C-alpha cells in the first residue's frame, strides 16, 4: 500500500540553505496527498526529490521509480508549453520521446485531451489559449503516459479564483477516473481540504512534516 517512503530526508543546497531536514513521509497507493505549508518550507524540494529530479543530501528514499519517466507525471506551476506546437503536438511530446509517432499516439492523446475538456482544441496553439486552458494542456501532457504517480507543484497558483475552482473540480474527476496516486503541493488550505484524502502540513526552517490530517475519501467533497 505504501508506494514511496522518505526516511529522515535532508536537502542542503550548496548556498548553505537547508530546505529539508529529517523529513519522514510516505505516499500510499491511490491517495490524493497534499503537501501544505507556507512558501519556502521545502514542499517543492520534497516533490523534486520524489520525482528524482534532485538527490537528497541525507536520509533515504525508497520506491522512487528508476529513471523518473514515464511512470511519473509532473505538472509545474508554469504550463511550459512549446509555443510552436499545437495542443495535440504538446500532449504528444512524452510519447514522442518514447518513439511513439503521431498516428500511433492519437488515441491516447485524444483521451487525455477529452479528460481535461480540450478535445475540440487539438489544433489550437498555446497563444490562443487562456491560462486555465494552458494548465489543462499541461495536465493532459502529464497524464498521456498513464503515470501511476502524478506530481503537481502548485499548478493553479497563478490562476484566478473561478478558473482555479473549475480546475480543482475537474482534477478531482480525473483522479477518480484514473485511480492514480497524486502528490499535490499547495499553500492553499482550502485547496488541500477540497482535493485531498490526506494532508501533510509542513513547517519551515528546516522543512519537515508538523502535522497530518486524514480525510475520509468516502465523504462527499463536491
Ligand atoms: P516551497 O515549495 O515550500 O515554497 P522550496 O522547496 O521551493 O519551498 O524551497 C525551500 C527553501 O530552499 C527556500 O528557502 C528556497 O529558497 C531554497 N531552495 C530551493 N531550491 C534551491 C536551490 N536549488 N538552491 C538553493 N536554495 C534553494
Ligand atoms: P540537484 O539536487 O541535482 O543539485 P537542485 O535540487 O539543486 O538539483 O535543483 C536545481 C534547480 O533549482 C535549478 O533549476 C535552479 O534553477 C533552481 N534553483 C536555484 N536556486 C533556487 C532557489 N533559491 N529557489 C528555488 N529554486 C532554485
UniProtKB/TrEMBL annotation:
<keyword id="KW-0547">Nucleotide-binding</keyword>
<protein>
    <submittedName>
        <fullName>ABC transporter ATP-binding protein</fullName>
    </submittedName>
</protein>
<keyword id="KW-0813">Transport</keyword>
<feature type="domain" description="ABC transporter">
    <location>
        <begin position="4"/>
        <end position="222"/>
    </location>
</feature>
<keyword id="KW-0067">ATP-binding</keyword>
<dbReference type="GO" id="GO:0005524">
    <property type="term" value="F:ATP binding"/>
</dbReference>
<comment type="similarity">
    <text>Belongs to the ABC transporter superfamily.</text>
</comment>
